[in-house]
Give the backbone structure.
Amino acid sequence: MAKKSKREMIHSPKGMHDMLHEDIGYLERILENAHDIAEFYGFTPIKTPHLEAAELFLRPLGETSDVVEKEMYTLRTKGGDFLALRPEGTAPIVRAYFENGMGSFPQPVKLYYEGSFFRHEKPQRGRFREFRQFGAEVLGGDDAVLDALIIKIAYLILREIGFSAKNLLVRINSIGDKECRPIYKKELTNYYRKKFNYLCKDCKRRLKDNPMRILDCKEPECVEIKAQAPQMIEHLCETCKAHFKSVLEFLDEGQIPYLLDNYLVRGFDYYGRTVFEIFLEDDLQKNDGGAESTGPDENKTPKIALAGGGRYDELAVILGAKNLPAVGMSMGLERIIHEMKRLQITPRTRTEIKVFLIHIGPAAKKRSFTLMEELRAAGISAGESISRDNLKTQLNVAAKIGAKLALILGQKEAMDGTILVRDMVESAQETVLQSKLIEKIKAKLKKK
Ligand SMILES: [Zn+2]
Ligand SMILES: [Zn+2]
């Protein structure tokens, strides 16, 4: 193994990054909203391991999918087990459903999760090799209302964290089931066979294993050929057709804007019937040179997918378990954070800091150390910059975080048990007894 140079040792692995407090503020805002909405609709949380048996992903995702072929991090343990860092959240949840006997719970079982996932992708804008997702799954139900519910939850979360209704669009398609999809696949194969020489290298290979993946290819030559390709929607069997129609009716009812995208497929083999992605449609995006996918010309060009998912009724059977109809979604949290920042959507801080404690001199510094705890015990969210002794520096920090009141403790105040309370907005200040401080702060904040 090549030794790392000193310089390399202070670099995180390519495509993986630290998350500092600013981004964590965004992350927490997104997750707070996501939890509230998911729990309101009866979802309960689940956490699954970061490592799973590699086989759990091999067949469900498709052995020829990009994720399995090139992107999965796998390792052989000293005991000989072949494990994978989870590249996605759905297969582990289906495993957990059976392993934990959730078949005996009232059906359907609704679960939500969040955490890190891992794919060895080419690093590009907004893509990471360790990325965070929030996801929700409904297991044990094939009613179309559940597909609509999953879409609604993803949509509501995006709305709730501040994305505008006019920028969000659900792109939706049905890719049929095991009755009607094989017939379509055959027709699609025939179509692409005639265009074989014009396909990109990857798609030439895809044609043999899974022609539907060609529809997802971003290479310009393949995008062009796609425009004339047969559409799944025209090949749906009666059951799939009725199911899809019903999903759309529920979306209409819920006033969730959607666009039929007849060539939308998802990368994994386990999807069937409903598939969807929620895009941020945004004109600002037009000229920034982003390498996002382009869709059929008659539609608005899709920009950035913030969430996606679909129905996966066949996944459990692929895993060798009982039939388990299910539908789910996931959202890419780094990408959402990136877009929130770009659109200047500010995250809510958990507790707004209302007062800021400032000290001048060593005696005051000592008193501050215990006074902070008195404020906390009284339920007052207070900030400090206790390691900084300069008055101006401390005042600047207080102003920067938007504190309403500054509590200034000088040498004299520390000695006689008083403290200066300065109104940061009106710049007025008064001296109060420390023993009356909590009362004073509460009274003053009430007026704000
Ligand atoms: Zn291609
Ligand atoms: Zn069908």
